[in-house]
Amino acid sequence: MTDISLSDTSVHLTRAATARKAGGGDSRFRYTALGAALLVLLIFAGVFVSLIAGSTLAFKAFGFGFITSQAWSPTREVFGALGPIYGTLVTSVIAMAIALPVGIGIAIFLTELCPRMLRRPVGIAIELLAGIPSIIYGIWGLFVFAPWFQEHVQTPVINALGDVPVLGTLFGGASYGIGIFTAGLILSIMILPFISAVTRDVLETVPNVLKEASYGLGSTQWEVMKKVAVPFSRVGIVGGAMLALGRALGETMAVTFVIGNAHRIAPSLFAPGTSISATIANEFSEATSDLYVSSLIYLGLVLYAITFIVLVFALLLLRSMERKAGK
Amino acid sequence: MSSSGLANSTLYLRRRIANGVFIALSLGAAVFGLIWLTFILYALLKNGIAALSPTLFTEATPPPGSKGGLSNAIVGSVVMSLGAVALGTPIGLFAGTYLAEYARYGRLAFIVRFVNDILLSTPSIITGLFVYELVVAPFHRFSGIAGALALTVIVIPVVVRTTENMLLLVPNGLREAAFALGAPQNFVIKSVTWKAAQAGIVTGVLLAVARILGETAPLLFTALTNNFMSWDVTKPIASLPYVIYQFATGPYEDLHTLAWGGAILVTATVLVLSILARMLEKKQRN
Q1: What is the pLDDT along chain B (286 residues), one digit of tens a residue?
Q2: B244 contacts in chain A (CB < 8 Å)
């Protein structure tokens, strides 16, 4: 009798211990998960804080005038961000002007027109293009694309437009191959698959009944796209485009190789220039004085602020699109 | 009657032409996209194949004018990527788990998700500056550790995102069944939901590796580079992307060839990893 009751208690005790242990582990596990989530927030805040801390010296020296000044002289220790900011914005605008229509075209092709058999392979190929590291675009741009572009596009264009008033200035000067325009073109190839992937995902959320109703009324494919699918997913397409813009603004290696690294803003788009990221990448290891390093970090802060604003808009638009699609 | 019929048929013709133009344009867009992929891969093969030889893996980067390989860069890339994955995966896994299992609809989860998406798209050169300020500047020392940390900051958001997405695919019935048996939540997560989402979580890690293997910008002022074979992560260490950048922008022809060889290695590895990840993800979704 006693025997049984003894073993009974011991069994009971082990169970209680297991349960307690499991329960204790449970809250520890929960806090670990919470801690990891908070760490994500901490990293984000850390990036901002470290950039602000690092740029204090330059901010004290130049203030907000840094953003509007074109001066960049490491020997005289005078720095201004206008040249790099100009390069970043112009290359991104060129990239978006090309990649946006083409990317949307690819997405429409993939969702609506592509024969079912080709849909997967073409989609995968486009996504692989998105996976190629930016340094590959850079080396390809420098050794293959820029020389080809110089010989077959720049030189003829410069010769043809040389005397036309406005275009002659925009596309004038010497043909170097590398420059702001080339960087914009390489960027456009880089963000193209990204835009088409996001747009495709958004277009796939258009309910089939809407499209079928429109086809039922006799619409052509173009009309269904223009009047049903695109209006329905407009917010998402804009969000995706802004996400791509965020990527273009911050892209470093693809641009650094081909932009030419010149701080002076030239009137011609074919002229060499620089972007914020290219300036940081090219000059950081050569920056000897504290003020030089601090100015480069200030540049980084400007870039982060610009991309942050673009990304917040992009994400808010995409979120509202998701809600609409009932995800 | 006949005039309106005529108007109708011209209208119809116009609509059909517009549609034809539209189809041609979007077909053209797809061809345009694929052409670049072909051009880039072709250029890689054409220029890099000459550099592909066993010495690429056995010898360290040479000074200009002599022969050599990329062994130090390969070692550095592997060491730093492994370090970044070893550190970033648990953090990303737990953070993603928090979002999907503990606070799915909470306010904190919303904020973390949003901030994570921002980190996911943060320019990698900014990540490099961050780690420079955090680790390199205070200790006055470039190191493999700093490089690995910079890559970790890139790994975390990728893993968080995929982990959460994959855990959300796990049907609630599985969780409820385990809870009904009296299992505590940590047990449910570890033995049921993580198990069910295993392939998907591995997908996230593969995608993260594919992403960091080609990253150059965050290494420029963290890991720097090293012309000699080195396993010491407390000192500057070479990496494939850095060496490609260094050699390609230099003036020496033979180093250009090595840069192309490195470019082939990186691209091939990244593409294989992406394809593997895609296959695993498909398995997870089925």
Answers
A1: 455 666 788 888 999 999 999 989 988 998 888 898 889 989 999 998 888 888 889 888 888 888 888 999 999 999 999 999 999 999 999 999 999 999 989 899 999 999 999 999 999 999 999 999 999 999 988 999 999 999 999 999 999 999 999 999 999 999 999 999 999 999 999 999 999 999 999 999 999 999 999 999 999 989 988 888 888 888 999 999 999 999 999 899 889 999 999 999 999 999 999 999 988 988 888 7
A2: 135, 139
Sign of torsion over alpha carbons B88, B91, B97, B98: negative
Across the interface, whether the CB atoms of A139 and B134 are under 8 A apart is answered no
A46: which chain B residues are within 8 Å (Cβ-Cβ)?
130, 134
DSSP-derived letter for residue B154 is: H
- Using CB atoms, which residue from B119, B186, B220 is nearest to A40? B119
Within 8 A of B221 by CB-CB distance, chain A residues are 284-285
Strand ranges, E, within A70-139: 72-73, 78-79
Task: Note whether A70 contacts B: Cβ–Cβ < 8 A.
Answer: no
Q: Which of B95, B99, B210 sits opposite A39 (nearest CB)?
A: B95
How many residue pairs from chains A and B have C-beta atoms closer than 8 A?
266
Instruction: Write out residues 202-231 of A within 8 Å (CB-CB) of B.
Output: 220-223, 225
pTM of the entire structure?
Answer: 0.91
Residue labelled with tokens 């917010």: A235
Strands (DSSP E) contained in A276-318 are: none
B185–A29: do the CB atoms touch at under 8 Å? yes
Long-range contacts of range B276-285, CB-CB < 8 Å, 24 or more positions apart?
B276/B206, B277/B203, B277/B206, B277/B207, B277/B210, B278/A124, B278/A127, B280/B199, B280/B200, B280/B202, B280/B203, B280/B206, B281/B199, B281/B200, B281/B203, B283/B199, B284/B166, B284/B169, B284/B197, B284/B199, B284/B200, B284/B203, B285/B169, B285/B200
Helices (H), A132-179: 134-140, 146-149, 155-161, 165-170
Phi and psi angles of residue A81, each rounded to the nearest 5 degrees, phi first:
-100, 0
Helix, strand and coil in chain A, % to nearest 5: 80, 0, 20
CB B230 within 8 Å of CB B237: yes
What is the residue whose two structure tokens read 């499209």?
A211
Q: Which token pair is B164?
A: 């959460």
For A47, the closest chain B residue by CA position comes to B130
Give the Å distances, CA to CA, from A36 to A176, B120, B159, B167, B203: 49, 16, 12, 16, 20
Tokens of A235: 């917010």
A72 forms beta bridges with: A79
Q: Contact, B216 vs B238, CB < 8 A?
A: no
CB B199 within 8 A of CB B281: yes
Residue listed under structure tokens 């953070």 = B95
**ipTM of the assembly?**
0.92
A44, A142, A295: which to substitute to probe chain B, counting the most B Cβ within 10 Å? Answer: A44
For residue B105, list chain A residues with Cβ-Cβ distance below 8 A.
none
Residue B168: CA count within 13 A, CB half-sphere: 13
